[in-house]
Amino acid sequence: MSMQSTSPKSIHTQNIPCIILMQPQMGENIGAAARAMLNFGLTDLRLVAPRDGWPNQAAIDMSSGALDKMPPPRIFDTLEDAIADLHFVFATTARPRDMIKDIYTPRAAALQAQENIHQKQSVGFVFGRERTGLENTDIALCHAIVTAPTNPDFSSLNLGQSVLMIAYEWLMASDTTLGHYTEMGDSFPAANNVMEDFFQRLESELESARFFRTPEVAAKMKRNIRNMLQRPRLTDQEVRTLHGIISALIGNKEKNRL
Amino acid sequence: MSMQSTSPKSIHTQNIPCIILMQPQMGENIGAAARAMLNFGLTDLRLVAPRDGWPNQAAIDMSSGALDKMPPPRIFDTLEDAIADLHFVFATTARPRDMIKDIYTPRAAALQAQENIHQKQSVGFVFGRERTGLENTDIALCHAIVTAPTNPDFSSLNLGQSVLMIAYEWLMASDTTLGHYTEMGDSFPAANNVMEDFFQRLESELESARFFRTPEVAAKMKRNIRNMLQRPRLTDQEVRTLHGIISALIGNKEKNRL
Predict the structure, then answer these.
(1) From B188, which residue of chain A is nearest by alpha-carbon distance?
(2) Residue B251 has pLDDT above 60, yes or no
(3) pLDDT for position A2
(4) Gap between the Cα atoms of A89 and A20, Å rounded
(5) Nearest to A90 by CA among A49, A50, A134, A25
(6) Which pLDDT tens digit goes with each residue over B165-176?
(7) Out of A107, A158, A180, whose CB is closest to B35?
(8) Of residues A13, A151, A148, the one with CA closest to residue A90
(9) What's the rounded Cα separation, in Å, for the pair A211 and A225?
(10) Are the Cβ atoms of A161 and B164 closer than 8 angstroms?
């Protein structure tokens, strides 16, 4: 075991939370946690007494390069040492029955962490051992608890998955990505006059083909056709394609306005 | 390879989305995906041409029992077959450059999926191969794209982690858990008169001990003490403990009101 305690004194207040793994057992889980951290921009990983020491080849392999791109994890003998420089520490655990503690969802915890960091406080999230989780003495060292809502019949999360959930929520809390938009690439929806020209041509061709039985039916059908073809927000190119299709179908190349 | 195509005809509209893994390679990733699904209440797993066939012992081991508790995954030869019964299919992939597609964050996609399911539509999320992801022909079969905001310098998510993010957001979209609350266990904050009795005793003891230099300082200090000790919302038991501490400190057991 090449385990070496690091003094937290040199650590400055950071604008991102750190992740603390309490006595992690499987190198694979450390690696998966590191990958999930870096996926969402977290880079301060602290290990309390990892079972197999450090460095750990299984962790490096499982991290898909994340451990090479992050500052090296810092190794501590005790949880007290690992959180010594922090101002607000979350314990990720199920709800305890016999402690008075603030309980957060991962989403609310990420917002709380943002508030703490805005106030120049350093924030950490502590994750327990794979099988046994955090003990009450560990939890008592923390200021609050994060519990994810899960399926009550199958609630045990993999360590790497737990870290991902927190890291993901941390990024989402500061993210300005539009929740939903339509990727248009280099193209642009056709302007209304392009659509109107198209509809008028289509309607005129349908009139010629006696598609509409009665004037009443015609009005309703035209409305339906417009509704249907407005929905996909066609591009200029797509409208040209439809013009081409109409021309091809009526076999009247002279009428093709392109 | 014991691979067997399943007809989707028998599948009824479900009130949860299904997860479709496109040509997954590592059994471990299938197992991690299954565990993440069941953690958040998803149970319909579909595999398109898994590299190592099915069943797969590595998947079963990695699922921590999830694959035993879920209906067996259904195996399909093609993505078309796997999504045949669905009405709205999300492709999880980076933003494509040359397709017009609706793009969702996992969070917005979960809300969209809820809307679809409310309208009795069956919804699926397709996840690509570990190394190469989804091809454009796969994406073209889907109605929309889900892209998670990630660290642009390290954006490649593990397959199981990607599934977790979707499953977690699905549960969160329907979850009513309070984002933040204080777990009080069986206890309850002390009533105001209990606190007031305590503060008056403490102030009187401090007066006796000549703690306050001047009346002006006294008023300010008392305010500060009250502020400080109101913040933790002490319980009756904790107030009794503080009374005991004061008594012990002044060494005057007779005055202990307990």
Answers:
(1) A100
(2) yes
(3) 36
(4) 10
(5) A134
(6) 999 999 999 877
(7) A158
(8) A148
(9) 13
(10) yes
Starting at the edge strand found earlier in the chain, the sheet holding B123-127 runs: A180-183, B101-104, B144-146, B88-92, B123-127, B18-22, B45-48, B74-76
- Give the distance between the most distant pair of CA atoms in chain A: 88
pTM exceeding 0.90: no
CA distance A216 to A62: 67
- Classify burial at A223, counting beta carbons within 10 Å of its beta carbon; exposed 0-12, middle 13-18, buried 19 or more: exposed
Complex ipTM: 0.76
Give the β-pairing of B180-183 and A101-104: antiparallel
Asked if residue A15 lies in contact with residue A150, where contact means CB atoms within 8 angstroms, the answer is no
Q: Closest-CA residue in chain A for B62?
A: A158
- Find out whether B174 and A153 touch, Cβ atoms under 8 Å: no
Among B151, B182, B187, select the one facing A102 at the smallest CB separation. B182
Asked if A105 lies within 8 A of B179 by C-beta distance, the reply is: yes
Structural tokens at position A235: 């591009």
Find out whether B155 and A39 touch, Cβ atoms under 8 Å: yes
Closest residue on chain A to B33 (Cα): A161
Rounded to an integer, what distance in angstroms lies between the CA atom of residue A42 and that of residue A49? 21
Cα separation of A97 and B176, whole Å?
21
Long-range contacts formed by B237-245: CB under 8 A, 24+ apart? B237/B187, B238/B190, B239/B190, B239/B194, B239/B195, B239/B198, B242/B198, B242/B202, B243/B198, B243/B201
Question: Which of A111, A110, A146 lies closest to A128, judged by CA?
Answer: A146
- What's the mean pLDDT when you consider all of chain B? 87
Q: Is the pLDDT of residue B106 over 90?
A: yes
Tokens 């289509």 belong to residue: A202
User: A27-39 and B159-174 helices cross at what angle (nearest 10)?
Assistant: 70
Least confident of A95-99, A133-137, B162-166, B246-250: A95-99
Which pLDDT value is given to residue B119? 85
Specify the higher pLDDT residue, A35 or A176. A35
Structure tokens given for B60: 């079963």
Nearest CB among B32, B108, B151 relative to A179 is that of: B108
Q: Report d(CA A123, CA A133) in Å as an integer.
A: 20
Mean pLDDT to the nearest integer, B20-46: 97
As given in the structure block, the two tokens for residue B151 are 């660290």
Angle at A40 between CA A38 and CA A41, to 5 degrees: 60
Tokens 């003990």, located at residue: A135
To which residue do tokens 């390069």 refer? A65
